[in-house]
Design a protein that fits this description.
Quinone Oxidoreductase, Chain A, domain 1; Rossmann fold; 2 domains; six-stranded parallel beta sheet; 17 strands; binds zinc ion
Amino acid sequence: MRSLTLTAARTFEWTTLPEAAAPGPGEALVGIRAIGICGTDFSGYLGKMPFIEFPRILGHELGVEVLAVGDGVSHLQVGDRCSVEPYLNCGTCHACLRGSTNCCETLQVLGVHCDGGMRERMVLPAHKLHVCHGLDFEQLALVETLAIGCHAVNRAQVAPSDDVLIIGAGPIGLTVLEFARAAEAAITVLELNPARRLFVEQNYPGIQVVAGLPDEAAFQIVFDATGHAGSMAGTLRYARFTGRIVYVGITKEPVLIDDPLFHRRELTLFASRNAVAADFPRILGMIQSGQIDTRPWISHRCEFGELPGEMEGWLLPDSRVIKAVVRLEVG
Ligand SMILES: [Zn+2]
Ligand SMILES: [Zn+2]
C-alpha cells in the first residue's frame, strides 16, 4: 500500500508499506479518506517540530471509513464514517487515571510521535474512532483541529459574562473563537495579518477584530494562539485583575512572566494541550447542527498524489492557507 514518508526536512518520499493486518480485538481497519494539514505538519515538514523524528509518516487530522472491525467492537460497522482522536494514551499513568488522557505521560500522537495517516489504510484502536454519519470526510478531518479550541475554552471555563481576547486568528485561534462564541462570551480578536483579520470579519459577524490594543485594554480571559514567546509574555498586560490566561499555542522558547503584574492582578495561567475523548462527539454534534461550519476554512485542497508538490507552495505567506485538506481516492 502507498504511503508518504517524511524522510528528512522538506523531503517526502513515496514508500510501499505491507498491507495493513486484519484488526485484532478492540481494533478497526480504516481507509484514510481526508487529511487536514496544520501547523504541526508544516513545522514537522521543515524539521522544526521537536517531537517529530525522521522517518515519520505524518497525518493526525483524519476523516476515515471503517473497512473491518475486530472482536469486541460494538460501536462501529463497516462503512461508518469517523473522525479520529489521534492521541494514543496509556490508560494507566497519573494523568490518564485522572481523566486527562490528552496529556498522558507517554502520549503518542499519530503523525507526530508515531506514524500517522498519510497512507491508504491503517489499523487503529476502535475507541479512538468517533462515528458520525451526516458529515463528509473533509468535515471529519477537521474535528481534531476544532478539539484544540474546545479543550482550551473548557480549560478557562468561559462563561457568557466573560470578555475574551483571542490573540492570533490562524487555524487554532479560529477554533478557540468557535467555542468562545458557543459559550456566548464577548470576543475580541487581535491579529496583525490583514488577510486573517478580513477572514474573521467576513465569517464571524459581531466579533470585534483589531490590529492592536490600547494599553488600558483588559479582558477576563486571554487566549494566546500565536505560539510566539513575546506574545505569550504580553498576555499578562491584557488580563484583568483576577483574569485567566490560556496558552494554546506552544513555543520552544522560555516565556518571561512579569511576576509583579501576575501577582498584583492575581492571574491564573493555564496550558492547554490536545483534547479529551468527550470533546469529539460534542464537536460532531455542533457541526451536524450547523452551529460550527468549517467549510470556509478550507482554502486549499489536493489529491494525495499531489501533496509533495504542494507543500512548499503552501508554506509561502502569499498562499494564504487557512486550512489545507488532502483527499484520498477510494481504492
Ligand atoms: Zn493539527
Ligand atoms: Zn497515560
